[in-house]
Fold this sequence. Notes:
This is Iron(3+)-hydroxamate import system permease protein FhuB. By secondary structure, this protein is mainly α. It is 73% helix and 0% strand.
Amino acid sequence: MTRTTLISALGLLGVAALASLQFQQPLTLTAQWHLIFHPQLAESFDAFNFAYAQLPRLVMTLVVGAMLGLSGSLMQQLTQNPLTSPLTMGTSSGAWLALVVMSLWWPDAIADYSALAAMGGALGAFALILFIAGLNHMTGMPVVISGMVVNILLGAVAGAMILLHQDYAQNVFIWGAGSLAQNGWEQVQWLLPRLSPVVLILVVAPRILTLFRLGHENAQARGLSVIPAFFFLMTLTIWLVSAAVTMVGLIGFIGLLTPNIVRALGARTPRTELLASLVFGALLLLLTDMLAQVLTVWFGQVVPSGVTAAAIGAPALIGFSRRRLKAQDNLAVRLPGSRHSVGLSAVTVLIFLLGLGIMVSFFSQPDQPGLHLAMPDHYQWLLRWPRVLTALSTGTGLALAGVILQRMINNPLASPDILGVSAGATFALVFASLFMGQSLLAGQWGTAMTGSLIVLGLLIIFSKKHHFAPSGVILTGIALSALLQAFVQFCLAGGNQDSYSILQWLAGSTYRVQPEQALWLCALVSLMLILSLASSRGLTLLTVSRGFAQARGLNTALMSLLLLSLVAMLCAVTTATMGPVAFVGLIAPHLAGLLGAHRVKQQLLLGSLIGGVAMVWANWLGQVLVYPAQIAAGTLVAILGALYFLGLLIYNRMTQRSGLV
């Protein structure tokens, strides 16, 4: 990157900063100039707004953007991985969860200890990712996948806490959406002294990063203590992220995109990349914030800058992954398997667990001490059977969708939630609820089906280039899910009663399901199961290869369309009825294979049974664990599923280390 390019970027930043102050600005340039140096002269509302709202917002935007850009560059250079950032490393989510916990249980300590709490949460998330991926695998996809799962896990825990403490969560909604709005200089004055590590980074980091580019062994041969240097710089980076997150909330993609942009513009040395990332990070967030202000006026509702950043960054991540994904970035996952076929004992145990789960769901009395069983009265019966039937049908349907997807694209990490198929249905339903007046509780299956099909189509288009490699598919799913999350945060930031209704529905609860909806869901999932079994031969042939399937006389295009339509329908009806549920479609096929279900028909049947058992038990446990409060079944499954996925990644690392893979 030439000096001219950097100077031009600084000039563009200055012009953009000046332009941002002129949006709907009644004050003259002369009046603005005087207020910059003499804010105490403000007398009118417009003058106060300029001096104590617009100017602090501009400064906060520039500072936070610069910090996120610098943090992303430092993370990517330390790991030699262009996909690492505060978003993909899970550090932002760790800081978020820590601040949610402090906001709900120690609100009086927020003012003094919020930055330390965020720092602790971010460090905890990073330590977890480091344990899962390993220091030697920071350059590839495992760290990105680990970060994605940690984000889901921490997000599910935070969501459960917010639902259990709704009366105190409004500020968390606004903060979680990433808002740069200011009402004075207090937050800017709090943040600036805590960014002093920037000077240390700019002085010390360039030489260390230059040695890191030679490889760990060569760097160590030249006298660098690699591991202490890595943790020293990463700790400074996490501190910067924590301080920024504490003040403005979650703003994604700036730290991911900025370093890639400056490298594309010619930044070659570590020092140049760090300095350019400071400038371009500030510029990128400023342009994003300007767009957020325009959209706020357009919609008549506050659009947080974090939402706009995600809306811009998600498509950019998809495009980046398509162009820059390298062979060494591909993720190979070996599942623990079984050489034995399905045994009668395994099926018997699963059926027993299903029956036991249904029994305790119907007959347990959580208001009594211990496990007290009694016949439900008429009112309890009317409340319980739709919830049990919905949980059973949802688990069965998502497991079916997971088996079909994993078999079709030969990818053990494929599932409706990870690939974004469920996110498409969720996005469509929330959008229709907010802007078209449809009720989330009305079971809008057609709307959800449309969203699922659109995401499936996009997924196929974007992933064909890499032949549905796990890395490319999952990056696409991350981007689509992040886009959905940004839209949801926009909805929740409104703070009205609809926000809590949407959050409850997003948690995946059976609480509001009506008897008619439960019956229709059961009937449709049963029909989808029959159609899936009838299509098992075609799915078996597609699993081998499309060429082999065509040689056997199969119309591969028609069969693929049928199977993908089944997946979309299953995601649509389950999501529209119960809300999004994560990881069931991932775990059930894995466990079915572990129990010996190697044939397609066996995996469809056994996976469906496992999914149903998991959801029935999650539904009951969610009702009794914190009684009289409740944890949504979808939230509980997301937490357990994320832990399973993390265990799977640890298993792969251990087997690779021992030479078993």
